[in-house]
Write a structure and sequence with these properties.
The protein is α/β, with parallel strands linked by helices. 36% of the residues lie in helices and 20% in strands. It has eight helices and 13 strands. The strands form three sheets. A five-stranded parallel beta sheet has the order 2-1-3-4-5, sandwiched between helices. Strand 3, helix 3 and strand 4 form a beta-alpha-beta unit. The chain is globular, with a radius of gyration of 18 Å.
């Protein structure tokens, strides 16, 4: 029988009671949790070993969770779920701007948190679109405008061959555009797609994701955009797409 690796989750939370509760819930549900009280301990834990996901509290002394998330995204594509006592849309948008994959507002139930964790982990470890019918042959590499996306490895390379890090939400959004090139995709459709990864998605959160993806694809200046806004309709991916 093949052993199944236990998924490791790093819990970054300064409140001792909440930290203990999260660790217990994760351990009881088959995960291997490691706890950190703040940014310094988080970096020490990351230097000591790899993790499948990070639960990152927003409000902490010193560097906030948003700052830590932004810093992590410079060097790592590890899935991140932000945890905060604030559940307003502006807070969720800020979390997305910094590169988080999901955002959970306190107080939350253990079942909700575990469902979010499973969803993010499932999509992070699935190299192909969840929307593909079973049995359909998978084309793993997609080229466009000198770029190449390897869907199995979830790796995007720019025209110079440099790997560009994508968060899980950014990857899924890009795949959606590549599956529908030179075709207008409405915000409602993008909202439907994004609900598989994000909680409480809105028009604003979709716009944030598109803006993040545009920047990674070369910039947001009108003459550089591979993703164009179609006023009152949605977005269109302008480049020709080639399946390799």
């Amino acid at each position: 029988m093949t052993d199944i690796a236990v998924q490791r989750i790093l819990v970054v939370e300064d409140d001792a009671g909440m930290r203990t509760l999260l660790v217990r819930v994760l351990r009881e549900n088959g995960y291997e949790p490691v706890s950190a009280r703040g940014g310094r301990e988080m970096l020490e834990a990351l230097a000591a070993g790899a993790f499948d996901l990070i639960l990152l509290d927003v409000m902490m002394p010193g560097k906030s969770g948003l700052d830590l998330c932004r810093d992590l995204r410079q060097t790592s594509n590890v899935p991140i779920i932000m945890v905060s006592a604030h559940g307003e849309e502006i807070d969720r948008v800020l979390g997305l701007e910094m590169g988080a994959d999901d955002y959970v507002a306190k107080p939350f139930g253990a079942k909700e948190l575990l469902a979010r964790i499973r969803a993010v982990l499932r999509r992070a470890t699935t190299g192909v679109s969840a929307r593909e019918p079973a049995g359909k042959p998978t084309q793993n590499r997609i080229a466009f405008a000198g770029w190449c996306l390897d869907r199995r490895r979830r790796e995007l390379t720019d025209p110079d061959g440099t790997v560009v890090d994508l968060s899980g939400a950014e990857h899924d959004l890009l795949v959606s555009f590549l599956e529908n090139p030179q075709r207008v995709i409405g915000r409602d459709r993008l909202l439907e797609i994004s609900r598989a990864r994000l909680a409480d998605v809105s028009d604003r959160s979709i716009d944030v994701l598109v803006s993040r993806l545009r920047r990674k694809l070369g910039g947001e200046a009108a003459d550089m955009q591979l993703i164009r806004t179609v006023r009152g309709a949605g977005y269109i991916f302008t480049a020709e797409v080639q399946i390799l």
